[in-house]
Amino acid sequence: MTRISEMPDSPAPGPARVGIGGPVGSGKTALIEALIPIFVERGVELAVVTNDLVTKEDARRLQAGGLIDPRRVVAVEAGACPHTVIREDPTLNIAAADDLEARFPGLDLILIESGGDNLASTFSLDLVDWWMFVIDVGQGDDIPRKRGPGIMLCDLLVVNKLDLAPHVFVDAQAILAEAREVRAGTPVIGCRCKGAQIEGVAEIADAIMRAVLFRQVAA
Question: What is the pTM of this model?
Fold first, then answer.
């Protein structure tokens, strides 16, 4: 009989995989740029997979930004409908994340940014453990009411670019309140990722820490 002390250790769990989806221009890459320094400060080892149709634009932006080792950012070129490679057949993204995990064994977190272009974009749970959907106030105050699958099914809805609300005739607090009502109390966070006053990004990092890294965060 094999004694418990002689049993082989269970394999260590791999890094958590978190999806970041949403329409083009909603600020997904900017959000990642704002999240990276927070995770670095908290000792979280991370890498990023980006998705674009036929370019590596988002990956190049992150690689050149000086926020993360460029080797920790890889690009997936969807070549067609961006939803396919994160939902129907996420093979390319799974392979990209697996490659990062193999090359950087100490990773805690892999962020997978979607090339989704509308409110129907969702992530396969074969690809990610948890995912957020990013919209912005510049798209109009009726976006939550449209109840797209991305808005309704995500683990966290992010309403970005709150600072632009007065310039596009949107009531930021009203759109946040309506988003929370539409989502029946499931998480919604408003944020601004650029400028002198960053807002809401640390709260988004906290949500990821709790939900998929199972780490305590300061109150």
Answer: 0.92
